[in-house]
Write a structure and sequence with these properties.
CATH superfamily: Peptidyl-tRNA hydrolase
Low-confidence stretches: none
Order of helices and strands: EHEHEEHEHH
Shape: globular
Distance between the termini: 6 Å
CATH architecture: 3-Layer(aba) Sandwich
Helix content: 25-40%
Largest sheet: 5 strands, mixed
Mean pLDDT: 95
Strand content: 15-25%
Structural class: alpha/beta
Radius of gyration: 14 Å
Number of domains: 1
CATH class: Alpha Beta
CATH topology: Rossmann fold
Length: 153
């Protein structure tokens, strides 16, 4: 099974909310996850589909064996959901993956980034901001739980 973290390349975006997929992969690399291959996209978020398609071809895997990890403004910070076969719900990176693979038949780990005060007015600006130290602590705590809920290989 292949787990791909979505995010933006470069130091400028490293600690931003939109890069939570990359952050999860960084943390999962510290775990011993038998049967899982980990990867990060090397394209900007809105072009994630091309990178994911290339990875699925390289590993010759069916999309049912693909897990995409990404930020989700519709979930509160500190929560995550693992689902299969769902639409993009406005997430342009996920929509790019769906468009390139021509299917929704893959797993998604949706990592909540919505602040306590509710969805910000300018979501596009918000996702490109860095996590605060407090938010980073919350995020680290939930990332450690994710391996317990991943689909079985």
């Amino acid at each position: 099974m292949l787990i791909v973290g979505l995010g933006n390349p470069g130091k400028k975006y490293k600690n931003t909310r939109h890069n939570v997929g990359h952050m999860v992969i960084d943390e999962l690399e510290k775990e011993n996850l038998d049967g899982f291959t980990l990867a990060k996209t090397d394209a900007f978020m809105n072009e994630s589909g091309m990178a994911v398609k290339k990875l699925t071809k390289n590993y010759k895997l069916k999309t049912i064996n693909l897990v995409i990890v990404h930020d989700d403004i519709d979930l509160p910070l500190g929560e995550f959901k693992i689902q299969k076969g769902r639409g993009a719900a406005g997430h342009k990176g996920v929509q790019s993956v769906i468009n390139e693979l021509k299917t929704k038949d893959f797993w998604r780990v949706r990592i909540g980034i919505c602040p306590k005060g509710g969805k910000p007015a300018n979501v596009e600006k918000f996702v490109l901001q860095n996590f605060t130290k407090e938010e980073q602590k919350i995020l680290t705590g939930i990332i450690s739980e994710i391996p317990n809920y991943l689909p079985k290989v």
